[in-house]
Amino acid sequence: MSSSATNPIVPGFAPDPSVALIDGVFFLVNSSFHVFPGLPIYASRNLTDWTHIGNAFNRQSQLSLQFSDTKIHPQADGTTMLATGGLFAPTIRYHIAIGTTYVICTNVVYPEDGGDDICQNFIVSTKDIWSDVWSDPVSFDFRGIDPSIFWDDDGKAYICGSAAPGPMTKIHLFEVDLSTGQKLSEEVKVWDGTGGIYPEGPHLYKQGQWYYLLISEGGTWKGHMITVARAENIWGPYEEHKDNPILTAKGTDAYVQCTGHCDIFRDQQSHWWGVCLGIRMRGEKCIMGRESFLLAGEWPEGRWPSLQHVTPEVRDRRLQLVVQGPPIMPRHDADLLYLRNADLAKHKLQGSTITLAASRADISQWSEPVTFIGKRQRSLSGVSTVTMEVPQQATSFKAGLVHYKDEHRYARMFFDSEACEFVFELVNKAKSIARSERRKAGNVDLNVRFKVTYTEQELNFAYTLGGEEVSLGPVDTAELSGSDFVGPIIGIQLVSDDSSCEVVFHDLHVE
C-alpha cells in the first residue's frame, strides 16, 4: 500500500463526515439533506479507497423530506448562503458489546408558514451494517442539530448536540436510553465554544481521565474551524485549548478551504486520524461543494489532539500500516438519488434502462414531487451521458439531462416536444442568473444522446442526433458556485401535463 492518499477521499456531495471502525473496516456517513435515499454509508479497509455500500435512510416510511426546501439568506458581505433542509450532520458509532451500529441525525423541517425550523432528531441502528437493513427512527427530544453519541466507561450513553437557535448556539449534553430515546438526565449546557458563530458538530471523546469536546465554529464557509476543550467530569467545566483552533483554512490561500466539521478516530494500530469537510476552491469557483477529506492526527494520552492541515494529498507513512483486505464491492444502485418525497412508482429501473413517468411539477420548485433520478457528480473533470428514446406521441413533454443542486440552481438540456426544440437553461436565483438557448430539432425519429462535459472551470452541454453533435451553453462554474450545503447531482427528468407520458432512457453514466 502507498504511504499517501488522494483527497478528497469521498468527492462530490459528501459533507459532514463521521467515521466508525467496525471489525477492521472503516465506515463513513455523510449528510444528505434533500435527497432520497439519504445518509450514505461508505466502507474502506485502508482509509484510501471508499466504496458506497448503502444508505441508513433507504425506506421512505422512515421519515419525510417534504419540507426540505432551500432558503436563500443574504449575507453582510453581499453574498448569499443557501441553506437546504433535510438530513443534517449524522454521526456513526458502534457499540462493540452489543454488536450494534448507530447513526444519529437531525431532519430539519422548514414549516410552510415560515415559522421556526423544526428539528426532528432521531437514531437508526443495525446489527449488520453490510445488510443495508436499518431500523425505523427512534426519536428523542432535543431542540437543536448535529447530535453525537458517546458511551462512558460505565456503559452510560450520552448525546451532545448544538442547541438551537443560532448563530450563537451552545453545546448541550444529556444522558439517554438509545433504545427508546428517553432522556435519563436533565439537558445541560457544557460549552459555549470559543466565540465563533455557530458552535456545532460536537463529538465527545475520552482519553485517560479527560473528556474532550471537539466542535466546529465560524460557520460552514471561509471562517470554518475546529476547536477543542476538555474536562475531568463529563458535565464540565470544560477548559479551552490555548492553541485553538486546531484546524482551519481561514485566512490562508490554501486550495482546500472551509475545513471543519471534523470527527477523529483510531485505526487498528491505534494511530489517530480525522475526517472533515472541505471545499476545493479557485477564486469563486467551487462547483463540487463540500466534500470529505482525510487528515492525519496525533493524540498522546494526557495531552491535546493535533491535526494536520488538509491538502489534496495525505502523505503519512502510517497509511502503510493500515490492515489490508479483499476489495469491497458497491451495493447495486445505492448511488441513485431522488428528490425529497419522490413518487418512486414513476421511476422504473431495469438493467441499464430507466423509464420515467411524467410529473406535472418541475425541479424549479420544491413543494410537489418531481420525476428526476440522478447520481452525485464524483469527478472534478469528467463526462456524463444518457441516451433517450424520443416518444412518437402527440402529448407535449420536456425531458433531458440536468446538472442540479437545488430548486434555485441548476443547468439543464432537454427536448421540448411541443416546440420541437432542444433547450439549454441555466438558473441561479441566488445570483439573479437566468438564461436559455434553443435549437430546432429537425428529424426526431431517432434516439438522442445528451452529454455534459465538465472541468473545474466550465460545464459544456451537447446533444447528438443522427450522428451530428450540437453544443449548447457553456456554463462558467462560478455561476453555480457559492456558499451552500449541498453538491452537484447529474440526472434525468421528465415533465408533462399528461401523467400517462413515459420516456425511456438508456445507459445513464455519471462520473
Structural class by sheet pairing and helices:
mainly beta
Query: Which topology of the largest domain does CATH recognise?
Result: Tachylectin-2, Chain A
Beta percentage is over 45%
Number of distinct helices: 0
Q: Are there runs of 5+ residues with pLDDT below 50, and where?
A: none
How many angstroms separate the termini? Answer: 25 Å
Q: What's the main sheet like?
A: 7 strands, antiparallel
Q: Give me the CATH superfamily of the largest domain.
A: Glycosyl hydrolase domain, family 43
- Helix-residue proportion: under 10%
| Overall average pLDDT | 96
InterPro entries: ConA-like_dom_sf, GH43_C2, Glyco_hydro_43, Glyco_hydro_beta-prop_sf, Glycosyl_Hydrlase_43
Protein name: Beta-xylosidase C-terminal Concanavalin A-like domain-containing protein
Family: Belongs to the glycosyl hydrolase 43 family.
Keywords: Glycosidase, Hydrolase
Please, could you describe this protein's structure?
It is a single chain. By secondary structure, the chain is an all-beta fold. The chain has two domains: 22-249, 5 Propeller (Tachylectin-2, Chain A), CATH 2.115.10; 338-509, Sandwich (Jelly Rolls). Helix content is 0%, strand content 50%. Strands 28-29-41-31-36-37-38 form a seven-stranded antiparallel sheet, with no helix packed on it. Keywords: Glycosidase, Hydrolase.
